[in-house]
Amino acid sequence: MKGLVPLFLGIFGTFAFSWVGLTVIPNWQIGHLNPESDEEGTDIYPQPQSGMFERGSHLYAANGCVYCHSEQVRADYAANDIERNWGKRRSAPVDYTFERPVFLGKMRMGQDLANIGARAPAQQESPAPGGAASPAASPGPSATSPAPVTSPSTRALPGAQSPAAQGATVSSPPPSNASSPATAPGKSPATSPAQSSPAVSSSPNATPPLGQRTSVASPPPSQMANATPGGSSPVASTAQTPGAPWPIQTEGLPPMYSAAWHHVHLYSPRSINFDSNMPTYRFLYEKRRIAGERSADALQLSSADAPPAGWEVVPTYDAKCLVAYLMALNQSHSLKGVRSVGGAPPAAPSTATPAQGASPGPTAAASPAAAKK
Amino acid sequence: MNATGIPLKEPAVSAAAGDMEQVERAYIDASTRVPVLMFYTSAIAWLILGTLLAGFVSWKLHSPDLLGDISFLTWGRVRPAHMNVMIYGWASMAGMGTAIWLMARLCRTVLRFPLLLVAGAAFWNLGVLVGVCAILLGDSTGYQWLEFPRYSAIILFVAYLLIASWAVLMFRYRRGEQIYITQWYLLGAFLWFPWLYAAGQLMLFVVPVQGVLQSAVGWWYANNLLFLWFGAIALGTAYYMIPKVIGRPVYSYHLATIGFWTYALFSSWTGMQRLVDGPFPAWMITASIAYSHLGLYAFFTRVIFGSMYYIVPRLVGREWRYASLIKLHFWASVYGIGLMTLMLLAGGFLQGADMQNPAFPFSDSIETALPYLRGRSLAGLLMAAAHFIFAYHFGLMLLGLGRTSTVPTFLNPVEAEPSGGH
Question: Packing angle between helix B323-355 and helix B302-316, nearest 10 degrees?
Fold first, then answer.
């Protein structure tokens, strides 16, 4: 009580101790990570992101997405994020090397977004037939046609959401991330060219356990087709299985996790998932009279949300940046020292039979083969 | 202001003090009147605003389409606005008000340099106002409790420097050799906060650290704000108020000093529990909100409410008007925070349990939590009622409508009719 100097020193000392211990030393330890690459110095991961990505990340912060969505896949011994197909490996510090701010998240009112870009259907960005980036797109009709997107768990109605049906959906074996080879070529334009080269994407060779596992546990044609993009299987382009537990694919909407899907979801979350409590972000969209031809960007809204005839809803530049950000969230690249797993539940019942495999053109996100009981 | 014109009272149960000491205290209390009331009034205004925002946030969580088309009322903006109003508007200002009063009293000297405090309070209000508007207009940084953009943070920091330099100056001019344990905590809080705030700002925005470390710094900041700023103020206040009110001195002064150093040393090392598993990931279920509500509300806000009930009569020279309102405030906030904590813990626990089962769709785990979120809205209503009652009561005091009595209202065994004192 007498010595003032010890008091002041103590006050500073205790705090300095914590500051050094919890921020300075970790910064020294993992604060200067470099991207990983292979022996030749190619296949660099991660890479700096585009300007749209950066702007999108600020929109993500400004509109509070971070309060409900995490961006981290936790290790398999600690949580079942991987079993939920939120990623095929745990997140590592190097994944966030170029991100600023970093949105690890604090709670999950919504699903994890660490790999939301990796879960997009392959053909999203090349809807026109003959898109060079996705050789697998050829077998069917246009990938953007929403019609073939059906699954047993379609839930346009609240009554349709029995847990049993959803449980069955979840256990469908092919993990969404197994499709990353097919996903990579069609990535959002925001990603760098190097990443969108098929050779660079994480091929089954790079992650042997993945390829082996999924080829055993799932309908072989689709998976093998992914490994060899030239494959002639009719379901070769299976990119996104509806096996991901949430949200549930709804009929008449664009394929799940595609950019068009994100726009519809941001504009009207409850048209896609009836009891989602995600806020709407309509202020990021513009409703305008159709001038001449309908815009290519116009949202494919279901009846309740659809604008009156002669009008269309188009994303603003901010909305496009936000979606570009989401589409670029992708931690599917394998890392040294971080174990990747197949992702499918070990004892998944083989409910998936290629029942719908014969349906004419299930291209983009259709993959009804996997979901059909 | 004329100090002698204000009837200043000690509670009947407090230790008998000499006449000289009574007069001295009266002078000191009177000298703190303007700055402390300024802090308190601002704090309560922010409290009411924050309560309204909280109601809106809570309601929107289960009715997401409510006013969803308006960008500045979207949930993801109102929520950080609410949190920051509560933290920087209400809690910090109320805490500083109490700390200023305690500092003057314990330094046993009339408050010097009141202009520093008045300017500090004005700048602080400005900083919070600018920051909250910035968040609502879409300029939030996205870091928990550091959402205010840089221009607002600079205003806050300037305001803070004024206030902290006042604290150091007061300490410099203190009378007597004794430094009571409360002063340790207050001095600690006043010196820790600027370092903490500056470190958070610098390491996240000015010279940002790389990648996941940003998250570590963010949590380190949020946690230390809770412990070293709010916690230290509340503990210091408790060390003064509790012995005062129950009329018994601190049991062992030696233990209290040990407590101070262990607190300073160890509480500052927590926070990383939120980064369990991952790149270093977190415990991300609803329980973490319950945690901040418990820490900030159940402990800090209640201590500050208590200190306000003690201090305000000494500033305005009137006793609180209605004992019934004090009781109502107390019980509504006790039940409110109790119910809220219970709801969030239960909802969070059940959601967490659901999420342990990978076959359980994620959206259903949210549905599990929904009834609890509605229950939380109800609890929020109770707390809102408590805050409105308190604000009303405080307003009466400010207008000089309190009771003129020699006995504190709440300690008066027979509640006298309002004696028509005004």
Answer: 160
